[in-house]
Amino acid sequence: MVATILFASWRLGVTAAVLGAIVDTVLRARAHSTVPAWRRASVAERRTEAQLKRLERGGYRTLHARAIPGSEAQIDHLVVGPTGVYAVDSEKWDKRLPVRVQSHRKLFHGPFNQKPRLDEARWEASQAAQLIGEALSREVTIIPSLAIYGPAIPWKVLTVRDVDVFDGGRVRKWITKRERSLTDVEIDEIYDAAERVLPARYPES
After folding, report:
1. What was the pLDDT predicted at 8?
2. pLDDT tens digits, 126-180
3. How far is CA 35 from CA 44, 52, 200, in A?
4. Contact 59, 84 (CB under 8 A)
5. What Cα–Cα distance (Å) separates residue 166 from each residue in 75, 146, 163, 196?
6. What pairs with residue 84 in β-bridges?
7. What is the pLDDT of residues 64-75, one digit of tens each?
8. ∠ CA 177-181-187, rounded to 5°
9. Within 10 A of 204 (CB to CB), how many other CB atoms are there?
10. Measured between alpha carbons, how far is 109 from 118 in angstroms, rounded to an integer?
11. What DSSP assignment string belongs to 126-160?
12. C-beta of residue 102 within 8 angstroms of C-beta of residue 118
């Protein structure tokens, strides 16, 4: 009624009222979401998580959004399974910009050198391996990776600065195409240690 009076036209009034109802519904839904905004994973992380969930029946176990103590760094997905231990960071990049490498040492997204991102992924994996190894009193190897969504990746899997880089849709194949290297007991031990030494980035309140 107010909209009709303000616009002096019942058609404009009805349109304004409908738009207002839509906006109100969206705002209420956001305000009453059971998942806080800071807890919502990115689109890339959710896509990777969906793929990794399908590995559970094959004996793989995954921890998501695990923090590296004493830093702001985070491993998006830490996977422990028959073929080894993996740190997967999920990236959503602008699909309009090409991805290329130079001499297996430099990764570019358009004109942007991704060296800092590669170094960060490698450092996260090394820190996690050190912490888990100390907890178990033995050496643990964690393979770092970037799973990229958006632009076309002109290779299957390429190691750049000791980090495996591939299209996000290849996550499961990248993990499962390796030879078995861990027993079920070792998988459980590493997973339990990782859960202890790598705190959840967003702990339950």
Report:
1. 57
2. 999 999 999 999 999 999 999 999 999 999 999 999 999 999 999 999 999 999 9
3. 18, 21, 16
4. no
5. 17, 7, 10, 29
6. 81
7. 999 999 999 999
8. 105
9. 5
10. 12
11. HHHHHHHHHHHTS---EEEEEEEESS--SSSEEEE
12. no
Task: Please tell me the distance from the alpha carbon of residue 72 to that of residue 106, in angstroms, as a whole number.
Answer: 24
Q: Cα–Cα distance between 148 and 57 in angstroms, integer?
A: 25
**Phi and psi angles of residue 23, each rounded to the nearest 5 degrees, phi first:** -60, -45
Residue type, 116: P
Q: By the 8 A CB rule, do 168 and 148 touch?
A: yes
Q: Can you give the pTM of this predicted structure?
A: 0.79
Other C-beta atoms closer than 10 Å to the C-beta of 94 total 10
Q: Give me the residue label for tokens 């002096």.
A: 8
Question: Of 78, 79, 92, 83, which is closest to residue 43 (Cα–Cα)?
Answer: 92
Residue linked to tokens 């490698």: 122
The helix/strand/coil state of 84 is: strand
Copy the structure tokens of residue 137. Answer: 């009193």
Token pair belonging to 7: 């616009």
CA pair distance 153, 144, nearest whole angstrom: 18
- The partner residues of 112 in beta bridges, in order of sequence, read 109
- The first and second tokens of residue 111, run together, are 């004109």
Q: Which helix (H) or strand (E) holds 174?
A: helix 171-176
CB 115 within 8 A of CB 107: yes
